[in-house]
């Protein structure tokens, strides 16, 4: 593998990692609300969470672009308040990856949290534990494997994300070009060998990530 | 506990079943109250409402001067702030924590060393010495229940709630746990409320009894009261014992025990655990008592007592005859027998029971 290819892998992996890490705290919170609470309009939230799974990725990317571009609702505010520019920077890559991976993570984490026997949580409460303590000492530890499995899935998905990324982050070599984007670009330019190289790397890394996730899930239910 | 506990509540379930409890009471001070009734009577719901794990549709719960729940005044103290030690049928030990971590979960304050020694103390008392680092999955059912009990007691509760704590275990383990934990429960410094459908539990452990049937609190009171003078045939049926009397063992040998019940000598078959001078409950089923006009000589009947009929009433198809033979005794006779014998209130008669039919429970 050449140093260019290596740089691509490192960049893609680190973007995927950052997206996953940013996704975990709010994702767990959301998963917990979905797992343990009911409210009017819960269905709407559940649908929104699943949306990136179903919408064409380019559409999701387009929506993100509209919202975060310099004239967009969120983009304008971010630039005013903190001088932050999102679209067509690495931040947009993280944004796109996190958005596209969120349904996988939230759904897996939710299932893991739901699998924790609520009576154990009740027992903890009778022993004097407030809600935070119940969550951190009982619920989360018991759901940990499932949550980790979800995070690995999210990571694997983020490694392969293309449609939304190319929309909102573009293809700026060295700045926003991820592995999948580079593969597409290579094919377009007729650089077949390069494309196959990169594709092989992508397969290996994804295989490892998903495999690890499966092992974690299996051990939890074993 | 800081004062008497009073609970009234109602709850309707989606299935249509209703639970309605009026004025359930646990008086101030120590003691074991048995919440007795068949499955589905609503006992677990009552316990869960006390613990704060279930919200009634309507109700009031006060402990001494404190209000823990009141639908009208919109008071609802959350479970984590009610100092209640709850042990359920399944133990519910935290599987990812060690035995020591489980037991110390509810402990407040203290240095690490202090907590460690308190945990060691509790484990010692429960017969689990040295098991600090084991995981719940490595313990037997009986051991798990002991850890669950230690965990509840170690959290320094104001009230201990046991929801059929050993009904999920096999009989020998149940009996062993009951006899080993009996001193603990009877001498605990906080009131204990124990749910059970097992008569043996009730008799061996209870100071007070509350009976529930089909969602209602049927009656409550001191053990002897509820057993001997149940207010309803329903309760009597549930308890299956019409006569309950305290006694002291005079002798026990050759398979036979003699017990002094308020001056009357009662002969029973020996059971394990009897010691001379020990206190016992003497139980006799109404259907096992026969009445006559004279004492029988040359009979195998070891128990024949003269007594006076103090009460007579119909109970279903039987007639319930209440006698005073020195202690209150109940006989269930057919209506025909009552008529033929001419049983009337005030009449002196001989009541007889085979020694085999007198059941003794050591306290």
UniProtKB/TrEMBL annotation, chain A:
<comment type="function">
    <text>Part of the binding-protein-dependent transport system for molybdenum; probably responsible for the translocation of the substrate across the membrane.</text>
</comment>
<dbReference type="InterPro" id="IPR035906">
    <property type="entry name" value="MetI-like_sf"/>
</dbReference>
<feature type="transmembrane region" description="Helical">
    <location>
        <begin position="6"/>
        <end position="35"/>
    </location>
</feature>
<dbReference type="InterPro" id="IPR049783">
    <property type="entry name" value="ABC_perm_TupB-like"/>
</dbReference>
<keyword id="KW-1003">Cell membrane</keyword>
<feature type="transmembrane region" description="Helical">
    <location>
        <begin position="195"/>
        <end position="217"/>
    </location>
</feature>
<feature type="transmembrane region" description="Helical">
    <location>
        <begin position="47"/>
        <end position="68"/>
    </location>
</feature>
<dbReference type="GO" id="GO:0015098">
    <property type="term" value="F:molybdate ion transmembrane transporter activity"/>
</dbReference>
<keyword id="KW-0472">Membrane</keyword>
<dbReference type="GO" id="GO:0005886">
    <property type="term" value="C:plasma membrane"/>
</dbReference>
<feature type="transmembrane region" description="Helical">
    <location>
        <begin position="88"/>
        <end position="113"/>
    </location>
</feature>
<keyword id="KW-0812">Transmembrane</keyword>
<feature type="domain" description="ABC transmembrane type-1">
    <location>
        <begin position="9"/>
        <end position="216"/>
    </location>
</feature>
<dbReference type="Pfam" id="PF00528">
    <property type="entry name" value="BPD_transp_1"/>
</dbReference>
<dbReference type="InterPro" id="IPR011867">
    <property type="entry name" value="ModB_ABC"/>
</dbReference>
<keyword id="KW-1133">Transmembrane helix</keyword>
<keyword id="KW-0500">Molybdenum</keyword>
<protein>
    <recommendedName>
        <fullName>Molybdenum transport system permease</fullName>
    </recommendedName>
</protein>
<keyword id="KW-0813">Transport</keyword>
<dbReference type="InterPro" id="IPR000515">
    <property type="entry name" value="MetI-like"/>
</dbReference>
<feature type="transmembrane region" description="Helical">
    <location>
        <begin position="134"/>
        <end position="156"/>
    </location>
</feature>
<comment type="similarity">
    <text>Belongs to the binding-protein-dependent transport system permease family. CysTW subfamily.</text>
</comment>
UniProtKB/TrEMBL annotation, chain B:
<dbReference type="GO" id="GO:0005524">
    <property type="term" value="F:ATP binding"/>
</dbReference>
<dbReference type="GO" id="GO:0015689">
    <property type="term" value="P:molybdate ion transport"/>
</dbReference>
<dbReference type="InterPro" id="IPR003439">
    <property type="entry name" value="ABC_transporter-like_ATP-bd"/>
</dbReference>
<dbReference type="InterPro" id="IPR003593">
    <property type="entry name" value="AAA+_ATPase"/>
</dbReference>
<feature type="domain" description="ABC transporter">
    <location>
        <begin position="2"/>
        <end position="239"/>
    </location>
</feature>
<keyword id="KW-0547">Nucleotide-binding</keyword>
<protein>
    <submittedName>
        <fullName>Molybdate transport system ATP-binding protein</fullName>
    </submittedName>
</protein>
<dbReference type="InterPro" id="IPR017871">
    <property type="entry name" value="ABC_transporter-like_CS"/>
</dbReference>
<dbReference type="Pfam" id="PF03459">
    <property type="entry name" value="TOBE"/>
</dbReference>
<keyword id="KW-0813">Transport</keyword>
<dbReference type="InterPro" id="IPR008995">
    <property type="entry name" value="Mo/tungstate-bd_C_term_dom"/>
</dbReference>
<keyword id="KW-0067">ATP-binding</keyword>
<dbReference type="InterPro" id="IPR027417">
    <property type="entry name" value="P-loop_NTPase"/>
</dbReference>
<feature type="domain" description="Mop">
    <location>
        <begin position="298"/>
        <end position="362"/>
    </location>
</feature>
<dbReference type="InterPro" id="IPR050093">
    <property type="entry name" value="ABC_SmlMolc_Importer"/>
</dbReference>
<dbReference type="InterPro" id="IPR005116">
    <property type="entry name" value="Transp-assoc_OB_typ1"/>
</dbReference>
<dbReference type="InterPro" id="IPR004606">
    <property type="entry name" value="Mop_domain"/>
</dbReference>
<dbReference type="GO" id="GO:0016887">
    <property type="term" value="F:ATP hydrolysis activity"/>
</dbReference>
<keyword id="KW-0500">Molybdenum</keyword>
<dbReference type="Pfam" id="PF00005">
    <property type="entry name" value="ABC_tran"/>
</dbReference>
